Amino acid sequence: MSDSPTSVPWWREAVIYQIYPRSFCDTNGDGIGDLNGIRRRLTYLAWLGVDAIWLSPIFPSPMRDFGYDVSNYFDVDPIFGSLDDFAHLIHEAHDLGIRVILDWVPNHTSIDHPWFVDARSSRESVHRDWYIWRDEAPDGSLPNNWIRAWSDESVWTLDESTSQYYLHMFLPSQPDLNWANPSVRDAMVETLRFWLDMGVDGFRMDVVHALGKDIDRDDPEDLRMIGHTPLNDVAVTHEYLREIREVLDEYSRDRVAVGEVYLLDPSRVATYFGKDDELHLSFNFQSIFTPWRANAWLETIRKAEEALNPVGAWPTWVMSNHDNPRVATRLGGQDRVRAALVLLLSLRGTAFLYAGEELGLEDALIVPERVVDPGGRDGCRAPIPWSMGEHHGWDENAWLPFGERASALSVEAQERDSSSTLHMVRQLLALRRASTPLRLGALRNLHVEGDVLVFEREWEGSVVRVVVNFAKSPSPIDTSTGTVLFASETLTDRTHLNANSALLIQVS
Q1: Which of 73, 84, 85 is nearest to 21 (CA)?
Q2: Is residue 290 classed exposed, middle or buried when 0-12, 13-18 and 19+ CB atoms within 10 A define those classes?
Q3: For the chain, which domains are there?
């Protein structure tokens, strides 16, 4: 590993690999991935060269939203294994130099959580005010006009046993916690401490911008049908985030808080870093929604830089995740996938790589009778194909179908092919790790030349130029002023960059 400035936090130069545990690797034959499956593949991840893994929720859950409906924050769901399995996973990952981040779900619980079971038992129950309850309005209408995620339905559900409505920004089986109640905040802090004591290196914090609520405010009629989640931006949430940050800092300045702040406006997201006393990192989802056009990416990068630089915040970049179509499906064509991955891993900021992106995996086609997710996200959650065989290293009853080209894109097939996307990503991660400009350098000279996006990364006089051709045909390039470090596709000559491809040039 190359030298880094000693004052730089590890997460600033990291590539963090997101694992959706159900779909990663199954070791007990039930068709569902588990913690021991992740342990089994740690050597693969070390070989690939990632710095950390982020695990989507592993807590006990009825799985109506596949782990984002938590019924116990202090344990592991038996389908994934045990606390002992998780302890072994942390130890083995750390031995390989891989950090472990957990997905923490602070906005809501499952209706099966003992807190909510008690809360709905009586208006006078101990945990009643741990959730958000309201009577209907005097005219018989709902408390406000908010719409929940994934539907055109209200965020309010009537609990008939106590004749009050409870709030849920997601499924009715996911009631929102009342973070205005200090007892809730104390309880949730204890859940953090439990996992920090086990040695986790940080948390990805689910819809963390939603902790504060302004219940008395209706959403604008022209925006409400997008759902309330991307509209919820309340000042008090920043107080809650500072309390959370204090807990992480008690353990170590190395523990990281990564926020899912789903506001889709970089300037609003920027406020969630505070004065380096709230989040360390926050996802920039614009990169998932940016079309494959040079000018569109120019604008996305520029907006992120303009929003984050004034507050001293560090950017993040992501191309896919468990909630959105994979980059291969969204963009089409392995050449675009390879160029997109070069772009992802060359931009200034922390890169998040969704498991299977290193293979160029596509979404699976899910027939109606196999649909299980309430948000229609099954396709991007298809299992990782480890082998070329009939079941790709899984039991024959894998919980979701594989993509159509699972054998050709499997780990086994790509390990054998030195020109594969897998080997390309491994080589690129090694180059990034060895290059301080690519890990930590400033971003400068951002511009577009026709259909080609160009920018440079600079660190103490060392400059790497990044060139991405978004066109369907070759574009002229000048490589005479530097040394070609990396190309997503073999260069046919040194004067033209292939269609839908990317190049890294050491300029100085």
Answers
A1: 85
A2: middle
A3: 10-108+183-213+229-433 (3.20.20.80), 442-506 (2.60.40.1180)
Q: Assess contact for 80 and 25: CB atoms under 8 A.
A: no
CA triplet 14, 19, 149: central angle to 5 degrees? 105
Q: Return the CA Rg of the chain.
A: 23
Contact present, 94 and 46 (Cβ < 8 Å) = no
d(CA 466, CA 339): 11
129-150 pLDDT, tens digit each? 999 999 998 899 999 999 999 9
User: What is the Cα–Cα distance from 346 to 351, expressed in whole angstroms?
Assistant: 9
Long-range contacts of the stretch 268-274 (C-beta < 8 A, 24+): 268/233, 269/307, 270/307, 270/308, 270/310, 270/311, 270/313, 271/238, 271/311, 272/208, 272/209, 272/237, 272/238, 272/241, 273/308, 273/311, 273/312, 273/313, 274/238, 274/241, 274/242, 274/245
Amino acid letter, 244: I
- Residue from 65, 103, 206, 489 carrying the catalytic annotation: 206
Q: At what angle do helices 236-251 and 182-198 cross, to 10 degrees?
A: 30
Residue 366 tokens read as 């899910």
Question: Is 250 considered catalytic here?
Answer: yes
Q: What angle do CA 371, 60, 89 make, to 5 degrees?
A: 100
- C-alpha 144 chain-centroid distance: 30
Q: What is the pTM of this model?
A: 0.97
Q: CA angle 164-167-171, nearest 5°?
A: 120
C-alpha closest to that of 113 among 79, 161, 69:
69
User: Has residue 84 got a pLDDT over 60?
Assistant: yes
pLDDT 10s digits, 145-204: 999 999 999 999 999 999 999 999 999 999 999 999 999 999 999 999 999 999 999 999
362 is catalytic: no
CB crowding 384-421: b at 16 or more within 10 Å, else e: bbbebeebbbbeeebbbbbbebbbebbbebbeeeeebb
Count of helix runs (H) and strand runs (E) in the chain: 14, 18
Tell which residue, 106, 246, 275, has the closest CA to residue 178: 106
Strand ranges for 309-389 from DSSP E: 316-318, 350-354
Q: One of 30, 218, 246, 250 is an active-site residue; which one?
A: 250
